[in-house]
Design brief:
- 2 copies of one chain form a homodimer.
- In chain A, α3 crosses α5, α6 packs across α7 and α6 crosses α11.
- Chain A is built from 12 helices and 12 strands.
- In chain A, α7 links the parallel β8 and β9.
- The longest helix of chain A has 26 residues.
- Chain A is globular.
- Chain A is α/β, with parallel strands linked by helices.
Chain lengths: 336, 336
Amino acid sequence: MKIAIDVMGGDNAPDAVVEGCAMALSKLGQDASLVLFGEERALQSLTARFGLASDRVELVAAGQRIGCDESPTQAIRQKKDSSLVRALNSVAAGEADCIVSAGNTGALLTGATLIIKRIDGVKRPALAPVLPTKTGGHVLLLDSGANTDCKPQYLQQFALMGAAYMEKVVGVKNPRIGLLNNGAEAEKGNELTKAVYPLLKNTPVNFAGNCEARETLSGDFDVVVADGFDGNVLLKSIEGTASVMMSLLKDALFSSVRTKIGAALAKPAFRALKRSLDYTEAGGAPLLGVRGGVIKAHGSSNVKAFCHAILQAERLIRGNVAQIIADSVAALPEED
Amino acid sequence: MKIAIDVMGGDNAPDAVVEGCAMALSKLGQDASLVLFGEERALQSLTARFGLASDRVELVAAGQRIGCDESPTQAIRQKKDSSLVRALNSVAAGEADCIVSAGNTGALLTGATLIIKRIDGVKRPALAPVLPTKTGGHVLLLDSGANTDCKPQYLQQFALMGAAYMEKVVGVKNPRIGLLNNGAEAEKGNELTKAVYPLLKNTPVNFAGNCEARETLSGDFDVVVADGFDGNVLLKSIEGTASVMMSLLKDALFSSVRTKIGAALAKPAFRALKRSLDYTEAGGAPLLGVRGGVIKAHGSSNVKAFCHAILQAERLIRGNVAQIIADSVAALPEED
């Protein structure tokens, strides 16, 4: 098994990426190896610094780098020698099984679809971040922003793809699928979700009904399917609210001597809270529905987060998720 | 000025509602009076208990009550003698200027549209909760769930309605309008938001561009307009995330003796945090775009929250918001 690494992508690249590779290498199975794509000098000096000389590590020089603000389609078309495009090409050619990148999300999604290509029958690949739940588990949200204006069948496929991921990569048996909706009752929804509901009822997944946005992190669902616009609103408002609350809490705790002392004593609790909200342990977000493995690590990934994204890539490949998605999509009845 | 009160609606009705009326009466202007609609015995005993005998309080017996789980359309059609329908009728007849209800949201929205009716030219009335921001201010979110599958022009009107409310009721000069979107850049969006963006550019409001979900509470926007499905996802995920974080924090603080002591000392900070997140001070959510005032108080409103919803109704009427909306909508160019 070979995992292609985009060394130049992400806020902390290339240093944290290469160090993350070094951390992952000791945890990966012995049959797993890494191919690092990046600027030659950076590769040389960083692999030396982090002791990454191994017969399980291959270095490939790439002369270009795609920035996080570049237009995705243009960047993919024009920067053929970028670390991202080279890494995508290696997956497309079957030389690597999965790519891990913390870089430009749009470029990774566009590039994956253009270069690695969709699985036969898959209408739209979906980006699927893994979120921590209140009960200590995880919930997969897809699509979180790769596709707007989805058709009902796309969400039906998202359900199959999400179920495959949670079952094979996270180890959840018979994952409960929720449909993001504006009410819990079956008849609620907009045109899209009203059409998706009966479709999911007749899909071979464990459909657990509508999921209101406030129930996303409840632990009642293992997968939540949504149009990418709505999934994006959901994901970003969870992130935004958590960040606002942390900042308000900090301000309040620093407002008096008494509360400062209290805060110092309660510090382990705040650390525990941060840990329960920390998604770096869960790795990045897989792009499901393409022919090879694609893991989008968070842009701000530190060493540990990037390491976890690599370990997630290993589980994605060992779980044979792309093949399971291909089979389950092929088994769906023909579209009307 | 007369405010119609649905005494029987809400989790804490009728007691908290009547007590809220008593609290509000001393704060309202002398020209403001209340008409309470509810079951006769409850009205008699509660107004006596809370000392609500005044020439500014009128009691109207209503023989029926609409429960929070009843089908809105059916309830409005069949329960003509319910406190809600009677109160709506009094606004429609011009006997009262505004209704305040903490009851069945769907029934209030349906009833307001069917009985009070839309302002001429308004395509869809919008439910507009007021949320606290990180910077201590407020942001109005509309629509938060009254309308799914919105057309671009609906959101254009939401912008005008939201601007009128924030200016006249909250006192924000030249309110900054944000468009809920999946990216900050002008070209981002789904079919709907891509069509709304240029429309808002050409609407006489202070359009501040796209608002990503994570920026909703940032304080950078005074009004956020959205399709009701997306607004509902946004609102409920903010509520859900805040509640999950509070519960995780509580669990963490109770996990050891040390953190318990810390928590006791830091208690004023947690109270301050709760206060900054508390939306009861801001009152309820106005339904904007109908001919009279409609305030939806939170279903779980306590005495103080209901009191604030009544004071909000007073500001809504004094601000002449419905008339301003009527004028600004009439001034829009004809639809193509």
